[in-house]
Amino acid sequence: MKLRRLDLENFGIHTEQAFPFAEKGLQLIYGRNEAGKSTLLQAVRELLFGFAHAGSNPFAPDSKSKKMRATALLQLKDGAELEIVRRQGNKNTLSGTFPASEETIDEARWQELLSGADQQMYQHVFGFSLQELATGEESLKEANLDEALFGGGLGRLHDYKQLIKSIDEEAENLFKSRGQKQKINGILAEIKGFKAELKESSLRPAEYEEWLTQAHRCEEELTRLQATYDQVYRRQQHLDRLKRAHPLWIELQTKQQQLAKLEAPSSFPADALEELSQTRNQAKKLASEIDGLARDWSRIEKEIGEIQFNAALIESSEAIRSLVYGIKEIRGYRRDIPIRQQERERDLDEATRILRRIDPKLKLDQIDQFELTFADRNSIQQLARKRQRVQTELDSQAPEQERLEREIREMETTLAEIPVKSQQLVDRLKSSRQPLADAIKRKAELEGTISDLKMKSTQRSGSVEMLLSGKPNWEATLPVPLEPTITKYEHQLQALSEEIRGAERTMRETHEELVAKRDELRRLEQGGELVTKDQLDESRGTRDTSWQALRQVLLGEIERPAEDDLQSQSAAFEGQVQQSDVMADQRYRNAQLLAEHQAILGQIATLEERLGARQQHVANLNEKHEALLDDWQAEWKSCGIAPKSPREMNAWRAAYLDLVQIHAEINRKRVDLTPLDQRIEATTMLLIATGELPEHVSTTEMLSWIDSFLREAETQREKQTELKIRIQSKEDERRSAAQQQEKRQQQLAEIDARGREILTVFQTLGNVDVEMASELILAIDEIQGRLASAAKLDQRIADMQQGLADFQQQVQAVLAATDESLEEMPAEHAAERLGTLLTEAESRHARRKELEFERQVTSQTLESRQAELAELEARLAKWRKQVAVSSDEELESVSQTVRAQQKIESEIAAKESELALVRQSEEPEEFLAALTQLDRDQLELDLTEVTREFAGIQDNLASANQQLGELNSRLREVDLSSRAVIAQGKIESLQADLSDCLDRLGPLLIAKEMLARAMKAFREENSGQLLASISELLERMTEGRYVQVEHDLEQEGGLVLIGPGDVRKKPAELSTGTREQLYLAIRLAYIRHYCQGAEPLPVLMDDILVNFDDDRQMATLNVLAEFDTEIQIILLTCHQPLVAKVQSLKGENRVHRLDGEPVVVETPKSKSPRKKSASKSSTPSLFENA
């Protein structure tokens, strides 16, 4: 897939901009900073995979009325062109069309074309900037390249990542190891709960088994009654069908008897009556049509006989048409002959007039004596023109010579009046002017710098002197601590303060927690009476002692006490038992409260211990903080300063050292001022000694005076030089003009001599010069032209008169051939009449041909219709003979009989169908036999008896169903009251659901494991091929510095680069530029491998060469330019030197500018000879320490 054109609307800086792209070669897009290169890269990313939401998209327009839109023309791998439009929105944001086939595509079809690539992979592999390139392995891992290549290698399975994602999502929806909302997790939790409930539930009642037995017996009785019910029901339905079928069977017998009485020929067709009617109607129609055709034939024959015309006119049609076409020309002849005769007379008169103007004595027949050759005529005309031109130039040059004499005298006077400056003085001023100006400028700069430094010192000295005990001595620097020392104290104090604050916060939290626990214990003790274990044991001991005494009395081991004592003892024991139970119940009810009470007591003890430890920790930290502050004070003791916090002292130290530097700089500037003042003073004294410089002039005025003096001297010198040059030029012009005048005089004499030699033919006309001869030649030419025109007109008149005579002869010949009497008419009128007669004759002749053709067609149609009528009569005669009748009426009667027979047969078939519907599924033979033997009265009796039996069985079924319903109701009540039955049923239902879920989960886990194994095998299979491709690309990029890339055996997934001499380096040991070249080679190898099994995607790289030196830049550009021709590579840059380098590459490489300006073809600078140190890149490096 290659970009051929990209149109962006409202995307970042590109509001309405079009980008054309070439089909072949490396393409470089150049633009300055903020011209929109990164925006263009992101636009291509979002064109392919969709715009980000406008709210979070930094490239979205500010106005809500404007929407992002991108239109692209793409060329696919097979050569087909595709135009797509990506718009801003939530769904259906892409549409496209194949222009050749007008096939449309949507988002789903587009994803198929992308072959499973996603935006993350494209951003890190195909469309990446220096940031993605520099991150190296992390960027490649995020792109999931192995998965993309694996998808392309498994039979076009390009949605591998989506497949894995779908499997994981579906599996996680079913089960997750520690999940709660997943379906299997939920089912397992419910089963666990119901099993616990099942353990605690009670058993079924005693009657449950008896009720089950009775219910089984009822079900068996119902089964028996149902079988009897079905048998009686079938018997009842059979009798009912016989009752309903009997009338139909009687009607069927009647129809069959009626059919037997009808007699008709078996071979006669059933539809003979309709066909007979149609045949007879068709015969009548044909007879009527035959009569009409006969009348038409007679009419046509009569009309043909009435048509009359002159056949000779048609035979002479070509000659007549020729005469008609020539009528216009003949009439023109008659009109033009008088006009041409008048024109001939005018030409002869004009020739005579011109000849008399030359010489009244001459005649027209004498004009030939003045004939000149063509060469002489041309020579005379050229000599006349040349003489006139030379004479004009001769006359015009006289004033010009006078003007030159006057200007030369004026310039010589001006030159003598210009004053002259001393050249020695001018040279001395020129040599001293620039050093003086530089010294003055440098002095002003130093004085300004010193002023600024003093102002800066005044502004900063207040905060610095605040901590000093006296006035600072800026030349003796105080021994202030170093910045790392201050930073160390700052970090230690800050860390210690943070630790103290954290310890105090923890101590407060512990104290607050202890107070809360004490309050909780107090509320728990106040909330109710708690029975301790000792109290319960004491009560139970008293109860057991009383029981032992009563037991001994009951067993006779001791003497039986009095009855009252025994009753009171028994009553006391009963009270003790009840009190022990109450205390046990109370302790059981308050067991949780007692446990909480004991737990809170333990927590309070723990918190008190923790609080003491944390209070001690805070005290230790405070002591440590005080000791660190004492050490901080000691660091500044040698400076005599009481320090503030480390952060403030760090700032004070920087300000103090800045002031020291400022004062040192002021002293250095003052030292630099001294030689400048000396130089200015020496130059001033030199100028005063010349006597030209006025006294009491400042340095600035002195410099201005020198400039003015030098300008004045230069102006005077330039004026003198200019006047001398002009005087010399004017003198040259004066000499040249005099020479030209002499030359022109000689030319005039030569022209006159040559003319006299040629003009001997004009001697009879007197003294004729060159100019007069030119006019005579023109007049003679005009006379000869007039005479030639008159001769042509004579010939034209004779031709037209001959044409009139020929036309007259042709008309007479046609009249004689056609025997038409038109001799009295003029020739052209007779021709017109012949044309009219010819048109009428041709029209009548054409009408006769039409009628003859119509007569032939009518005759053929008449014969055809007569034959059809004879065929119909023969068909009727055949039918009459077939049924042995002599007339059509008898034939129609037979047809009606056949129709009645057909009707009865269809009624019999309908009755048989009704009878089959009533019979339903019973056997036809048995059913018809039963109908044949049927006794109507016996049928009614049997049907009544069966109906009564059927009603009794229904009552028994209802009674049995009622009894079974009562038993089932009792069982349901027992089941609903039994938690065990309910729990067991739900467990069984949940186990069924669990089995279904496991059936779904198992294939998903197996599929994922199979894909993982296939991915591992794919990596092992393609690893060598990819490494070979990476090695080849890296060797070319590094110009042979590294020739091979291998796996790092010490680190899984790592790489090792091998150079000449078995030099081995890991990526971390490489420079920034070389490491980026490695990552670029990896990407290009992956791109090449990926595009072998998928649609190639356009590759865009944004300023990835900034860390490459010049040689490796050129090597990398050659690699990109010679990369796979099916993969489009577009390089974005803001560095001008890359433009010339790309232009110097071989092949069809293109350079575009983002600002739309034309690209200037540049030549890269020649390489300087190599030095020992490595050459640096012409582009700025982002990593200076690489």
Explain the overall architecture.
It comes from Blastopirellula marina. With 1186 residues, this protein is mainly alpha-helical. Among the domains are: 1-114 and 1100-1110 and 1117-1166, P-loop containing nucleotide triphosphate hydrolases (Rossmann fold, 3-Layer(aba) Sandwich); 208-268 and 892-977, no CATH class; 272-310 and 828-882; 317-370 and 769-819; 532-589. The protein has 29 helices and 14 strands. The strands form three sheets. It has a six-stranded antiparallel β-sheet. Strands 8-12-13-3-14 form a five-stranded parallel β-sheet, with helices on both faces. Strands 9-10-11 form a three-stranded antiparallel β-sheet. Helix 13 (374-417) packs across helix 21 (770-818) and helix 14 runs antiparallel to helix 19 (646-690). The model is unreliable at 141-146, 148-158, 202-206 and 1166-1186 (pLDDT under 50).
Question: How are the SSEs ordered, and which strands pair?
Answer:
Blueprint: E1 2-11, E2 14-20, E3 27-30, H1 37-49, E4 69-75, E5 81-87, E6 94-98, E7 103-105, H2 107-113, H3 119-126, E8 127-129, H4 130-135, H5 137-142, H6 145-153, H7 160-174, H8 183-200, H9 208-261, H10 272-306, H11 311-315, H12 317-358, H13 374-417, H14 423-465, H15 483-527, H16 533-555, H17 563-589, H18 591-635, H19 646-690, H20 699-758, H21 770-818, H22 827-882, H23 888-919, H24 924-932, H25 936-977, H26 979-1037, E9 1044-1047, E10 1055-1059, E11 1063-1065, H27 1072-1091, E12 1099-1102, H28 1110-1121, E13 1129-1133, H29 1137-1143, E14 1150-1153
Parallel strand pairs: 3-13, 3-14, 8-12, 12-13
Antiparallel strand pairs: 1-2, 1-4, 4-5, 5-6, 6-7, 9-10, 10-11
Helix pairs in contact: 6-26, 6-27, 7-26, 8-26, 9-23, 9-25, 10-22, 12-21, 12-22, 13-20, 13-21, 14-19, 14-20, 15-18, 15-19, 16-17, 17-18, 21-22, 26-27
